[in-house]
Write a structure and sequence with these properties.
Blueprint (H helix, E strand, L loop, with lengths): L4 H60 L7 H11 L6 E7 L4 E3 L4 H4 L2 H8 L6 E7 L2 E12 L2 E11 L1 H51 L15 H50 L5 H30 L9 E4 H12 L6 E6 L3 E5 L1 H18 L5 E9 L4 E8 L30 H11 L3 E6 L5 E8 L5 E2 L3
Parallel strand pairs: 7-9
Antiparallel strand pairs: 1-2, 1-5, 3-4, 4-5, 6-8, 8-13, 9-10, 10-12, 11-12
Helix pairs in contact: 1-5, 6-7, 8-9, 9-10
Length: 475
């Protein structure tokens, strides 16, 4: 069976592929290190050998310079007899007139073509080189012998490097063994580390696949590490929490919408059916039915528009903030609500600040709060707009206060939910006003707070971060 390389490569897995790549890189590095080590080791022992036989040459030259030409051969014989050599070293001294002196073991050296040539034609200067003599690596030095200024012979010294070669072989084998062990350790550690890392990534993939199938309860949980994968898992779980909240909110919204719209639509249909079963000739009855249907449709349209606003609040481009003078904004709202009902609208109190907010969204939210305050109060009751900059807690509080009955503390959490109107004094509200105010405040990075006003009624506050106030107006 033939298996193509891409398929085989895929079967290895990401951890295996990365481990193989890392091993190749590590092998190249270790190979380069071993090669440099061998080269330096070889160069080192060759230098030692050359230095040793160079000592022989210098001693001979220093002592020979003191001899007369006729005494050189006798001196050379004496030098070889009395001079101790290291094991494996050989010295050959040859003169033009035919005299040849050598230490034991010189046969292989004398059989070397280069040495035979030097015996006839001495080198012009000292030469050091590495070559094979009798099959053994050898370091050799050749130099002319002078009698005064005249060349009378050749001095040759060699050092057998077989011992060094064996040592080099051992070092090479040891280096290779260490390199292979380091390569195996690096490859295996890389493989297991990547396997462990990619197993976590695999769990994330499996969880994402389960979520894609509709199981939103899946979570990665603690991965037992504080590295990037642990952070990824933590962020992934937080994202799932937010998605689940949004989807749960959407399901609840659909349920609430269907429930809220069913009532007015059913009422409108019922009146039309009654009208259809009765006489169409009575203009008064027809007019009453039309008015009821229009009223129900207006209520439905209002609910739909507010739901659209809540839906847009979930979008990232919901806000279009721009620098706005806070006091001017509140004065505009005060002028607009003055005709809503016969209430005592207190002139707004606000610091001279420039705020960076979405003017239309904030205006709409505050108008909702004023409308709620009007619905909860009677003629002559107080409705006030108040803004306070709390620099200690770095927030801006914009409140609508009234002198109505207030909101009991037990109901304050419920009134900000969609379609919830506990304790409402009227029956034509949608129950979405405070939910919209809450959405606008949260979109600005703040929240909504409900308490008791200084007039004894309710105080509903939009709390915005003070960072939304980039600078103050000069007065």
């Amino acid at each position: 069976m033939v298996v193509n390389s891409p398929t085989l490569f895929r079967r290895v897995g990401s951890a295996g592929r990365l481990a193989i790549f890392n091993s190749l890189v590590l092998a190249l590095i270790l190979g380069a290190v071993v090669a440099v080590f061998i080269r330096n080791f070889t160069s080192s022992y060759e230098s030692v050998a050359a230095s040793a036989i160079g000592v022989e040459l210098r001693e001979f030259e220093q002592q020979a310079a003191k001899q007369l030409p006729k005494n050189l051969e006798a001196f050379s014989r004496n030098f070889l007899v009395n001079h101790s050599l290291a094991p494996g070293d050989v010295v050959v001294i040859a003169f033009y007139h035919g005299g040849l002196l050598s230490t034991p073991g010189s046969e292989a050296v004398l059989a070397t073509p280069l040495v035979r040539n030097w015996l006839v034609n001495p080198p012009q200067r000292s030469i050091v080189l590495s070559l094979a003599v009798g099959g053994s690596p050898t370091e050799m030095v050749g130099a002319p012998i002078f009698a005064g200024s005249k060349v009378v012979g050749t001095f040759i010294a060699t050092s057998d490097l077989s011992g060094f070669a064996l040592e080099r072989t051992r070092e090479v084998r040891l280096s290779l063994a260490e390199g292979v062990l380091a390569l195996l350790a690096g490859a295996l550690s890389t493989f297991f580390l990547l396997r462990r890392l990619l197993r976590k990534v695999g769990r994330i993939t499996m969880t994402a696949d389960a979520i894609g199938s509709g199981n939103l309860d899946q979570r990665l949980g603690d991965q037992g590490s504080n590295d990037e994968v642990g952070e990824l898992a933590h962020t992934f779980d937080e994202m799932l929490d937010r998605i689940q909240v949004v989807l749960t909110g959407q399901r609840r919204l659909l349920s609430d919408v269907s429930h809220q719209l069913r009532t007015p639509l059913t009422a409108a249909r019922g009146h039309l059916e009654v009208l259809g079963r009765g006489s169409m000739d009575d203009p008064h009855e027809v007019r009453e039915t039309i008015d009821v249907v229009i009223d129900q449709l207006d209520h439905t349209r209002s609910v739909v528009e507010r739901l659209l606003t809540l839906g847009h609040a979930m979008e990232p481009d919901f806000l279009a903030p721009r620098p706005t003078e806070l006091r001017r904004l509140l004065l505009d709202i005060h002028e607009a609500v003055g005709v809503l009902a016969p209430r005592t609208f207190v002139a707004p109190s606000a610091p001279d600040l420039i705020v960076d907010v979405d003017v239309e969204k904030v205006r709409g939210a505050l108008m909702n709060l004023v409308d709620n305050a009007v619905r909860a109060t009677h003629e002559g009751d107080v409705v006030a707009l108040v803004a306070e900059a709390d620099y200690e807690h770095e927030v801006l509080r914009v409140s609508v206060e009234d002198s109505g009955p207030g909101i009991p503390e037990s109901e304050r959490q419920a009134v900000v939910e969609r379609f919830q109107r506990p304790g409402a004094r009227d029956s034509d509200g949608s129950g979405l006003g405070l939910a919209i105010v809450k959405a606008v405040a949260e979109a600005h990075g703040g929240w909504i707070d409900i308490g008791t006003s200084r007039y004894g009624g309710a105080r509903v506050t939009m709390v915005l971060p003070i960072t939304r106030i980039p600078f103050e107006v000069e007065v």
